[in-house]
């Protein structure tokens, strides 16, 4: 049996759509209180509606419509989590920028800068903010890999996503003995908006089920999360 406080607190960055939303919904279904972060207010409200539909009368989500590249906003959020709960038991980092596919010789400067800011820099700034909260809660950080580094036309996305995961792996090695626990999962191909941008003609019926994959990933956390 888990000995963690009730409710367990999960921060989900990138919670307004795709696998981030599905994981946030699954966590709430299992009784976690989810602090849901995304820029899209409508997407967060949709998540809240879905959680309340599955758990009527519950208050299992705190919506935080903000940009993860805004350091001051994210520091304030982490401080608010500490002030309210004193700890964090899980951080799921699902936020990503999917730049349009293009040859490396034709990279657009704005897309490149945005990819660096969201996929790489924000991750590097968030880890030091979140780490003390996770240590206080003996918690877990979960990253979602998508190994596209070196693939043709995936230059901006592939390079920055690979950099993000490399950073997560360094953190994972550094904290093996002292915590927090750092997990890296590679989801199966899913019918997300990001994948639709990359493969617009793909047969989406052949892809995995978002909620089934969210359930599988949450199950990997175990009672120690």
From TrEMBL:
<dbReference type="Pfam" id="PF00106">
    <property type="entry name" value="adh_short"/>
</dbReference>
<protein>
    <recommendedName>
        <fullName>NADP-dependent 3-hydroxy acid dehydrogenase YdfG</fullName>
    </recommendedName>
</protein>
<dbReference type="InterPro" id="IPR036291">
    <property type="entry name" value="NAD(P)-bd_dom_sf"/>
</dbReference>
<comment type="similarity">
    <text>Belongs to the short-chain dehydrogenases/reductases (SDR) family.</text>
</comment>
<dbReference type="GO" id="GO:0016491">
    <property type="term" value="F:oxidoreductase activity"/>
</dbReference>
<dbReference type="InterPro" id="IPR002347">
    <property type="entry name" value="SDR_fam"/>
</dbReference>
<keyword id="KW-0560">Oxidoreductase</keyword>
